[in-house]
C-alpha cells in the first residue's frame, strides 16, 4: 500500500516478465515531460502512470476519514477512470477512450478505488460493478494477484478483502471455483510457527513453495485477515498481555484466520520493538527506514488490538516522517492519517504537522470550508513536483525500481530476493 501498491507493481512486473518490456511501457505511458500538465482534479503533481488511481483513492479516503469533503471534480475524476467492466487501471490518460484488451486493469487500483468510492457514497452502479469484476477475477485458491490471472499474493488479496467489506460483501461468502475463500488464500500464505519468521505473512511462495516472512505483506495480511480496509478502525478489546495470543505464535490443526491475524500482529510488534520502524527490503536500500510500511504496521497493530505496541512506531513517525511524506506526496500523507486515526492521534497535530492541510495542498480545494484543506499555491506545487521523485519505499524512487527491474530483465528471482527472502527489520 501504498508501499503495497509499489510492491504489487514489482510483483506484477515479475510475473508477466517481458510483457512489461521498456518498449511496451513507452507505448502505454502518457509520455510525461517536465512541462506536461496532468489533470487538475488529480492529487499530486508527479507522473500518475503507475499510481494515479491508487494515490487518488487514498487521498479521497483519508480526507473523508477526517470529515473533509473532497472536491467534486476529484471524485468525478476517479469515477471516470473506471472501465465498463467495473475494473480500474493504474491510470488512463484518456478516460473517454473505451477500455480494451490492452488496458492493464488491476486488482489493487480497483480495490482502492472501491474503498474510497464506497466511503464517499458513490452510486451503486459504480461500486457494484467493481465488486462484480473483483469476484470475476478471483483465483482458484481464493485470493488475487495484482493482474487478473497472476498468482495470488498477500497484499493484493488483503486490499481486495478490504474492498469487499467496504462494499458490504462478506469475504467468507466469496468462494472461488474450487470453493476456496479469500481467507483460505491468506491462511496458505501465513508462515508456520516452527519456521524462520513464523507468524508473519509471506508475499508469495518462492519457486519451491517455501514461505518467507515479509513485513510489508504482514502489515497487509493482518488487515486482510481481520477483514479491515486501508483506514482500519482500532480494536478496543485487544489481547491480554498474559494471553497466549499476545506472546505466542498459534498453530496446529485448528489454525484459524483469527490466529493468522494475531500471529501477524505479534510478528509486527516484535519487528518495531527495538527501533520503532521497519527497514526497507528493496535492493540497495536495506538499511533505510521504510516509512510507509511502518505507518501500515501502526494501523495493523491497532486493528489487531495491540495499541500498546503502536506507541514507539507512532512516535518515530511523528518525529521522522515529514520529509518523506513531502517528497512522496498524497498517498504518504494518507498513510500517516490512517495511522493517526487508528491510534486516536489528531492528524492535524501530528508531530507538530497538520497532515490534513498538507494532504489538501497536493490537490484541488476541498468542498469543506475547513482552512486546513486549502490548496497549495503554484510555487508549492512546483516545489512538490521538483522534489517528489521518491515513492513510498523508504524514499526509494519507484521509477528507479522499475528501471532497474526492466534493465536487468526483472523476473521472479528479483522479486523473491527483494521481497520474499528479506527478513525485516
From TrEMBL:
Region (Disordered): 227-251, 361-392
Xref: SUPFAM superfamilies: Terpenoid cyclases/Protein prenyltransferases
Record carries keyword DNA repair: no
Low complexity bias spans: 361-375
Biased composition (Acidic residues): 383-392
Signal peptide limits: 1-26
Keywords recorded for this protein, A-Z: Membrane, Signal, Transmembrane, Transmembrane helix
Transmembrane segments: 397-416
InterPro entries: Terpenoid_cyclase/PrenylTrfase (IPR008930)
Protein name (record): Secreted protein
Organism: Streptomyces umbrinus
Phylogenetic classification of the source organism: Bacteria, Bacillati, Actinomycetota, Actinomycetes, Kitasatosporales
